[in-house]
Amino acid sequence: MERKDFNSKDNKTTELTTFYLGDALCGIDIRKIQEINKLIDMTRVPQAPDYVLGVLNLRGEIVTIIDLGRKLGLSPAQITSESRNIIINHRGENVGLLVDRIGDVVEANEKKVEPAPANLEDIQGRFFEGVLKDEKVLVGILNLDEALKSEE
Amino acid sequence: MIIEDEETLQMYVEESREHLADIENDILAIEECGENIDEELVNKVFRAAHSIKGGAGFMGLNNIKELSHKMENVLGMIRDGKLTPNAEITNVLLEASDVLREMINDVQNSNEIDISEHVTALNAISEGTTLLGEEKQQTEQPEVKDEKLPKTADTKPSFDVEIDRVSKAIQKGNFIYIVDCDLLSDVQAKNKTLGEFISSINDCGEILDCVIDTESLGTLEIYSDSQPFPLRILFASIIEPDLITTVFDLDEGKITTIKDESELSSFFEKQKEEPPEEATQPEKKAAKKPVEVKPSQEVPSKKPDTKPAKSKPRPQDTKPIVHETSLRVHVQLLDSLMNLAGELVLSRNQLLQAVGSGDQHQLEVISQRIDMITSDLQEAIMLTRMQPVGNIFNKFPRVVRDLARKLGKDVELQLEGKDVELDKTIIEAISDPLTHLVRNAVDHGIESPEDRIKAGKDPKGTVILRAYHEAGQVNIEIADDGKGLDPEVLANKAVDKGLIAEEQAKVMSDKEKVNLIFYPGFSTAEQVTDVSGRGVGMDVVKTNLDKLGGEVELDSMPGKGTTIKIKLPLTLTIIPSLLVSAAGDKYAIPQINIEELLRIPASQVKDRIEKVGNAEVVRLRGQLLPLVRLVDALDIDRVYVDKKDGQPKPDRRKSIADRRSKTSPYFFDEEQEKDESTQEVFIERRSGIDRRYHASSAVNIVVVSAGPLKYGLVVDELHDSEEIVVKPLGRHIKKCKGYIGATILGDGRVALILDIPNIAKMTNLTSVDASDRALEVSRAAAKASEDVQSLVIFRNAEDEQFAIPLGLVQRIERVKRNDIEAFGNRKTIQYRGRNLPLVGIEEVVEVKPIADHDELEVIVFKIAGREVGLLATGPIDVIDVAIQVDADTLKQQGILGSSIINGHTTLMLDIYGLVQALYPSWFTELKTVEAEGDKGITILLAEDSNFFRAQVRKFLEDEGYGVIEAEDGLVAWNSLQERIDEIDLVLTDIEMPNMDGFALTEKIKNDSRYNHLPVIALTTLADDESIEKGKEVGVDDYQIKLDKERLLEGIYKVLKGMSLAKG
Amino acid sequence: MIEVTNQENEVVLKPGGNLTGNTVQELKEEFLKILADEKGTVTLDLENVEQIDPAGLAVLITAQNSFNEKGTELSMTNANGELLELFGLINLERFFKLD
Predict the structure, then answer these.
(1) CB atoms < 10 A from the CB of B878, how many?
(2) Is residue B272 part of a domain?
(3) Which of A128, B828, B963, C16 is packed most tightly, with the most Cβ within 10 A?
(4) Cβ atoms B883, B789 nearer than 8 A
């Protein structure tokens, strides 16, 4: 359940898990996140869209792993020891988002949220619900529906 | 406004759906009854409409309320005998119920749906303003009654009421009363007002009529309030006579009970004349009737075909089936599930303990137990998804009725086996194909009544839709007694269309010709009519069924009729499959698509694999089979093997010369970081069309079929057959055409399940030449020669089933439990003057102990030269069945494997293993013959069943023999030609495709190069006929496949004989 | 209490309440007066009448009889729904001249 208009909610703060996609610091509502894993063996899926890295077995369920950066228009991810898989539940299905590096948990007071700019570090603004200014950093709050829209 | 409460709304929808479930068939049944109205039935439908109406009002579902209300009216009239349901009325009701169903299924939008025409139609019926149909008209007697009553002292004013009203009231269970009261003494004196008095009566029933003799009251001038004021009421009420006085608060004498209409006549004094304008039949009852009610039977003229302003034509074809998202499950099944869950918990606890204590043996035992429980659990859960096939059968009476009427035919549909259960998904999936087949039967099968009469048939055609279980599958038959199909006509058509070659047509049997109808492109313009659907051919039906793992076949007798038989697996979600690997990954191929496995040895690659145009093909028994490389079909990247971990990794290099960068994109290995140089070894280049088959590697081909199309899928390696659980792929991958799902392997990794038909499409695989179609024919022929095994089925514990080949059994005896003697843990029984040792399965195998019956069965075998009896319980059955044996699950000492027979998990008993475990001293080493030189003996084993081949090979190898396998006679013959030097003995099955055992033996014995070889024939059914034939062709010995001991003995003897002869 | 309105050729009788008890007696007397009087039409305004008791009905019926005999018209108006229904149930709606 995405909240389209972050600012219209009543005065509550939520927590965001943040992570890096390239140079962009993005955030997702922590309640949407099932778990965060290191990368484990995946089975690749030939013929799947480019951004699909593969599938893996998560306690009996077949979960699709997506190179989130690539999906949002960045170049393919470089796997490092810091890469992580963020498993979220989106539209009734568990999906894994491969990200470059996990950041801190950030408190989001909706008063500090502003509309997304046209571009956030090479990622188009349409993928964000808004941006949060936290200390000196800018956190782009992901619009999961838009980000995970399956193309074609 | 529609009620907001989701839950209540949902409940209402569920209930309404239930009400509507049978409504269609009930309405049809009402039509059948015609004038003999089955009031129960009409009431049932009435109540359904009534309930729906009631809830609808509450929910704010105005359209639903209105429509159901109108239906209720019409149904009420039918029930009351005011209407005779005929075809037109039935149609209106059916259509209204359709719309009602639509609205229930889309409640939120139901108020927007236009129901006006249905309402109008229903109104027209209930108001009798339509010329459609027959109506019993209640003739209201117009002002024929006399205005003035002849006033005589003893003339009591009579009632003016229609006899029918009275009759109806009586029919409904009312009592009829005539109340004579005096308003003065009975009402006034009691301080009641008139209104109160009348209301209290009206509330308890119905005032049919009321009479006040106004005349007798006289004029005002003479009126005195002490004069009597008589009032007479004709009253109908369900209140019984003994209680009725309290209603009126009157003395009994004033109330007269009327038992039936005829008694009324005495109360009627007015004579009525027959109204002249009605040409009617006189009432049969007593002549003196003030009211003549004439049920006017308007004999309707033959209904014109063009109906006045009726609703649009039924859009049968385009109506989608709405599928339920909930299930009904038998409570017993849920109990089973609970039990199994409980057992699983217990076993898990045991497991944890055993793991903690490190008891290896205990671990094995427990894992066996958990294995069984899991199987049972799996079975039980699958059963919950089983729904009766009647769910879709039930819509067909309507389909047939409407279609038959439209085509002017008379067709009766019979349904059998409505209770047969199928997995929910399969039921949904066969709905469309079945509809097509049923419509076909009516459209093309059944002839018009005239034609049928000419052919000497009953003008009414019959279509039978039948479902039944057989051999672990569900069969559905659609049989009609129509004109059937002419095999010659079909064959000619197929040849004309280039689907088969003329030569093939010549060798086809009638049955094969008639099944040509399933080939794509077969439907001709004549056959495709608007009614059955344009372009929806039988081939689509077949493809759909293939996808489900089902089969379809057609049988027809020209002039007599056609029967279409569909076989379906019981469930979808667990399928047997073959695991293969390509480019380092494992994939699963559904068993249902697999025809055979082909391994082209390196040396034959050049000969057998050719190119036709752009496509690669392999020669298979004289035919050309197109080849598809799995890596190409899926466009898999090239691989290389990382030397560090031996894992194949995707290769992104553009040329061989590029060095790999340190990080690998998918598989992160910490150690790799530290490694300076990663050595790569390139396995094989896989790219484009200009690939060459490497001379040093054999080629593994899985021959698969996708509908009528057959091709060979080239893979790297073949692995085991496994039953796998099909899991759905996520949204992002669902679109990929190559997969039908994924599964989780034993090691936890994911394997994608290939979609064989789609892969064919993806590689633009079209038939290489027309002879591919003929492969279909040969396939049909091959199927006929499947291995059928005679098995003895029995139990140990009541709910665990076992099987053993019949050929091994000496005899079966029944004994009394009390007669069994025990010595230590050995059991024996006195039998024919000797002690017969007894063994129980549970002594060796981890299964439940034998049931506690007074009488037990003993299956007697001969093992290691001695007789031994196996304890068992009934029911003992002998069945002939072509079984699929799973040799991996449930394997342990004493068990060969498991299979599903008659719907039960059945363990295949290894009697040798069992006895060996208990009486190892019986077994002495069987000698093996020393061969010349240092070569061991090699046996050529020809056997098409993978299971048996594996089993026999195993015990041959255990004995030290070398084994060369061949999966049919032809392959064996080829192997013989190539490797004659190695082979010492031929062991051959009889029933095999392409070349059976007899033919092979004959060839061998007639060929001077090979006739020195002894040939032993393996069989499952050792009947005299086969033995004779075997002798004729020169078989040296006959053995039963799983009778290991005798087989080895036989081989030994024959070889010994040979070597003696030589030496 | 019955309100009597004399007009040209018509007398309007309007009971102040139900036709029960004493009112019935009153009505009877009014009717008798008019009958004796050879006047023309009589209209009974039932606006205020909700209930009638048997005596009241008897009076109405016998009055109607008398007027019929005499040839003058007795009509009733403004009967409310319940009254009309009642008359219907006991089949008097044609006997009386109701409008």
Answers:
(1) 12
(2) no
(3) A128
(4) yes
Which CATH architecture group holds C2-89? Answer: 2-Layer Sandwich (3.30)
The answer to whether the beta carbons of residues C61 and C93 sit under 8 Å apart is no
Q: Quick one: closest CA in C to B183, which residue?
A: C54
How high is the pLDDT of residue B268? 54
ipTM above 0.85, yes or no: yes
The set of chains that have 3 or more CB pairs under 8 A with C is B
For residue B1040, give its domain range.
938-1062
The vertex-B877 CA angle with B874 and B878, nearest 5°, equals 150
- Residue B1014 forms part of a structural domain: yes
A141 within 8 A of A129, measured Cβ to Cβ: yes
Whether chain B lies against chain A with 3 or more Cβ pairs closer than 8 A is yes
| Distance (Å) of CA B43 to CA B35, B73, B76 | 15, 12, 8
Chain-chain contact of B229 with C58 (C-beta, under 8 angstroms): yes
Tokens 């950066």: give the residue.
A69
C89 and B CB contact within 8 Å:
yes
Residues 6+ apart with CB under 8 A from B428: B321, B323
Distance in angstroms (rounded) separating the CA atoms of residues B629 and B635: 9
Domain ranges of chain C: 2-89
Alpha-carbon distances, residue B595 vs A88, B587, B772 (angstroms): 41, 17, 14
More confident site: B676 or A115? A115
> Among C52, C69, C92, whose Cβ lies nearest the Cβ of B193?
C52
Interface list for chain B against chain A, based on CB atoms closer than 8 Å? 585, 634-637, 650, 663-668, 670, 673, 727-733, 735-739, 742, 744, 748-752
Distance of CA B1049 to the CA centre of its chain: 47
**Cβ neighbours of C30 in B, within 8 Å:** none
The residue written with tokens 């169903």 in the block is B101
Q: Which residues of A touch B (CB under 8 A)?
A: 39, 41-49, 51-57, 60-64, 66, 76, 78-81, 83, 91, 93-95, 148, 150, 152
Q: How many domains does chain A have?
A: 1
Q: What is the CATH number of the domain that holds A66?
A: 2.40.50.180
Find which of B188, B220, B249 to mutate to test the C interface (most C CBs within 10 Å of its CB): B220
Closest-CA residue to B427 (of B474, B460, B367, B471): B474
Both tokens of B757, joined, read 């038909």
The structure tokens listed for B190 are 């009691």
Does C53 contact B202 at a Cβ distance shorter than 8 Å?
Answer: no
pLDDT digits (tens, 9 = 90+) for B754-779: 988 778 777 765 544 334 444 444 44
According to DSSP, residue B755 is labeled -
Question: B584 to each of A40, B649, B750, B933, B1055, how far by Cα in Å?
Answer: 17, 8, 13, 42, 44
Residue B709 and residue B821 in one domain = no
Q: How many CB atoms lie within 10 A of CB B934?
A: 6
What CATH number is associated with residue B551?
3.30.565.10
Please name which of B835, B837, B896 lies closest in space to residue B861, comparing C-alpha atoms.
B837
Q: Taking all residues of chain B, what is their mean pLDDT, rounded to a whole number?
A: 74
User: Amino acid identity of B937?
Assistant: I
Question: Which residue among B749, B784, B819 closes a domain?
Answer: B784
B279 pLDDT higher than 70? no
Are B183 and C56 inside 8 Å of each other by CB?
A: no
Identify the residue with better confidence: C68 or A59. Answer: C68
Asked if B89 and B132 sit in the same domain, the reply is: yes
Which DSSP string corresponds to B244-256?
Answer: HHHHHT--GGGEE
Task: Evaluate whether residue B879 is within a structural domain.
Answer: yes
Given a contact as 3+ CB pairs under 8 Å, which chains touch A?
B
Q: Could you give phi then psi for residue B798, rounded to 5 degrees?
A: -60, -30
B376 in a domain, yes or no? yes
Q: Do B222 and C32 touch (CB under 8 A)?
A: no
Question: Which residues pair with residue B151 across a beta bridge?
Answer: none
- For residue A21, pLDDT over 70 is answered with yes
